[in-house]
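Now for a typical sample entry:
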Amino acid sequence: MENLQKAEENVEIFKITDEPKTVTLKNKIAYAVGDMGNNFLFDMGQLYLLKYFTDVAGLPSALAGTVFLVAKIWDGFMDISVGTWIDNRANISKRGKFRPFMLWAAIPLGLLLIANFTIPNFSVTGKLLYAYVAYMIFGTVYSISNIPFGSMVPTMTRNSQERDELASYRTIGANLGLMLATIGFTPIVLLLPTQKIGYAVAVIIFAILGVLCQWYCYANVKEVYKVPTKPKLTKEELKEQYKALFKNKPLIVISVVNLLTFSSFNLKSTVQVYFAQYVLKDTAAVSYLGFFSIGMILVAAVVVPFLTRKFDKKIVYVAGCLIWAIGDILGFFFTTNATTFIFFTTIAYFGNGFATTLNWSMISDCVEYGEWQSGVRSEGLVYSFFTFFRKLSQAVAGFVPGIVLAWVGYVPNQQQTAEAIFGIRGLMFLYSGSLSIFAIIMILKLYPLTDARFKVIMKEVVARRNKKTTKD
């Protein structure tokens, strides 16, 4: 560590250079389209499934919330299992280590998504059991598709700035998917004679689009740095991989921070439907919000690579969380109609775009840090550890609204009490704003990787690899 600090202090003298650039514009666009497809498939559950459970399937809100809690915790452990499996696969085809999963998992994901929004007319107990099983199976297959997708970046490029750009493209694709899902879903539902039919048709449309996007990504991304086949690990070697995870301080910090920020983001996405319907009494506001606020996330994703050329990633991340917190706190006090709702939420989502974009770049940096620190390189395990916390955040985002809505006396499709209105408002703004402030404190105080330090680490890691190759 002392040598690393000395090298960092003398970074200007020794002029540490980045790795070569290996990603084309076509690759970047394909990677963006891939995450757009991920979000067509994934966001249906985060945005609309709780409302489908309560208002269409007729499940009590507290029970519906437990589906998210249990299913997402299950998903988190599935992420770790899939990450371990991916890292230690013995049979790697010419298609690559990660790409094939996008090809084979796409259609099952689409079918499972449709199954979640077509609950049969069972008893409440039967519907609840069906919801648990369908959503947990969907989450398992999504892990099999998404863990390789996110783990692939270190094999696409070793260049830090290029990783920032891929993270930016990924964020643009993801939020285009979220924007289109937010803008397009409700109008499709309203066009159909009943909500039940409307939800089913809308989900089928987005499932087909999601599958096509994932296939396009598979066909147009490239694993430049081939991963050698590993011999079968012993139990002791597997234990060492897991021990290395918990020694990776940047990974721990960014995972916990993401638990805060992503639960805020997902909870807002869930609650905004309730807020528009019952507080603003304007369901069309959700579509307008999707266009303006999520559009600002895209603006942030474009801006971030330019900012990270001039400022350290930590500083850019903190600036985004600060903007996010300000937007939400002001929104709680001053939102009175659709216009002010969109205005303040747009500010918050712009700040969110900084954090969302940089998460993907920073987690790739954690892979290199882990290899530098322990000698163990585990792209899939590192990424799945990170997504484990994202799944926990989704569990929180699905569970908390259901519990709070039940606590404040929410009744579906009825005039809400003042207590219920206050609860919905607090969920929409205060929850998110307060967690953004905690994220700022953690990044500033605990996250150890600066850009200069990462370049030193990357240089040492590459030197070790070259030395090992020479010996072999």
Q: What stands out?
A: Confidence is low (pLDDT under 50) at residues 1-17. The longest helix spans residues 338-374. The chain has one domain: 2-471.
